[in-house]
Specification:
The protein is of the alpha+beta class and 108 residues long. It has a domain at 4-78: BolA-like (GMP Synthetase, Chain A, domain 3). It has 3 helices and 3 strands. It has helices spanning 4-14, 46-62, 76-82; strands at residues 19-24, 31-37, 68-74. A 3-stranded mixed β-sheet has the order 1-2-3. The longest helix is centred in the middle third of the chain and has 17 residues, at 46-62.
Length: 108
């Protein structure tokens, strides 16, 4: 499995001026909560911010390298107001969905 450092370096290729915060949710190297903080996101809708990152990670999701990617893309101002944004779709506790959880397609 890959790890937090790998995810961070991949995201920095796409959003080079960003602050990237990553949590390996299960310690397995394939379930990640990621906050990408950059003022280049100002004026962009959430999916516009996330799409380049999701497109980049899609091959890794399809081949099983990444199983879950909870992605939060925000400006510096939004991040300062957001507080703790960690969400684990497979975790215990409250099941309110706050992120994007992409499942890789089942192979035929």
């Amino acid at each position: 499995m890959k790890g937090e450092a790998w995810v961070k370096s991949e995201i920095e290729k796409i959003v080079p001026d960003s602050l990237v915060e990553i949590n390996d949710l299960h310690g397995t190297g394939d379930h990640f909560h990621v906050r990408v903080i950059s003022d280049t996101f100002i004026g962009m809708m959430p999916l516009e911010r996330q799409r380049p990152i999701l497109d980049h990670f899609m091959p890794f999701i399809k081949n099983g390298t990444v199983h879950a990617l909870d992605l939060k893309c925000m400006t510096t101002e939004q991040a300062s107001k957001a507080g703790d944004t960690v969400f684990d779709p497979h975790g215990d506790g409250e099941k309110q969905f706050l992120g994007i959880h992409i499942r890789r397609p089942k192979e035929k």
